[in-house]
Amino acid sequence: MFKQAVAENEAYVAGETQAVAIKWAASAEGLEANDADGETFSFTTVKA
Fold this sequence. Notes:
The protein has helices at about 1-10, 10-15; strands at about 35, 40. By secondary structure, it is of the alpha+beta class. It has one domain (about 1-40).
């Protein structure tokens, strides 16, 4: 659900967060896990 919602609104999410890209990865090594409606996810930011 979370990944689908982000994918469906990718341009909006990127614009609101000033992201140039949203990339999905299988590994969350070294990142803190978060929960969105029962779906676990992790994220990081990278400055250009």
